[in-house]
Amino acid sequence: MTEIIDGNAVAAEIRDELTDAIETLADAGSRPGLATVLMGEDPASQTYVNMKQRDCEEVGIEGVHVEVDGDAPAEELFDAIDDLNADPDVHGYLVQSPVPDHIDYRDVIRRIDPGKDVDGFHPENVGRLVAGDARFRPCTPHGVQKLLESAGIELEGADVTIVGRSDIVGKPLANLLIQKAEDGNATVTICHSRTDDLAAKTRSADIVVAACGVPELIDGSMIGDDAVVIDVGVNRVDADNEKGYELVGDVEFESAKEKASAITPVPGGVGPMTRAMLLYNTVKAASIQED
Ligand code: GUN
């Protein structure tokens, strides 16, 4: 029987642990604060920040939401960032991407105080992660690590193929999994849109992580017998329903499930873990700043 790895259940456990840690911090006079910044009106981004704010409320983090007009000059967004950097009640924050075309997201990330960069995207935090001294592990890779750990999947000596080389998922996850650490020591292959014979690389892997943003690219024929499949993809595809769309992963779930020993669903797999690890990083930021 293929195990369906339940991200909602693991995320709920993490939120419970965090709720206790937050109470302890609050008793000592410090309530962790997380701000979300949204520039423009991208509907998916609005949904994501709403969910992040709801998560804050659930665990006792003080949530603040900042909106910047999508047509505003970059300076307006930078002013909002400077205010958050200076605000002692905001321990961590993120600027939701994508940002409008006239804004360079790299300038945005570089302006964030690295000690408040709970996404872990600032070059200083990227450098620390690569050096094996991560302060904030980016939320999705960290969530994938936690899911693998909770499912009891051995990484030591495992061949992991990651499909996707993004700065948010593929690159940091590869760096984490190769590290000489309890949750590392894997052998990692990173594939992308120019990879030759992708199927051969996924088929030979013990663990396949799909994070390329191509709906259902990876099907059962690309999965080795009893491999573990982690689907990071969240793709909106047109559907004949009330919303007019449905969410599908980067993996064709039904055929991949036939081959895999364990697999994450979409939704309900990696997504809730990403959100939980953002809360985790916020509590960590508050603990460091209040220390
Ligand atoms: N857009 C999609 N994923 C993310 C994320 O993890 N952080 C931010 N800030 N924006 C995103």
Automatic annotation (TrEMBL):
Subunit structure: Homodimer.
Homology family: Belongs to the tetrahydrofolate dehydrogenase/cyclohydrolase family.
Segments forming a coiled coil: none
Residue intervals of the Tetrahydrofolate dehydrogenase/cyclohydrolase NAD(P)-binding domain: 138-288
Database matches in Pfam families: THF_DHG_CYH (PF00763), THF_DHG_CYH_C (PF02882)
EC number(s) reported in the record: 1.5.1.5, 3.5.4.9
Protein name: Bifunctional protein FolD
Catalysed reactions listed for this entry: (6R)-5,10-methylene-5,6,7,8-tetrahydrofolate + NADP(+) = (6R)-5,10-methenyltetrahydrofolate + NADPH; (6R)-5,10-methenyltetrahydrofolate + H2O = (6R)-10-formyltetrahydrofolate + H(+)
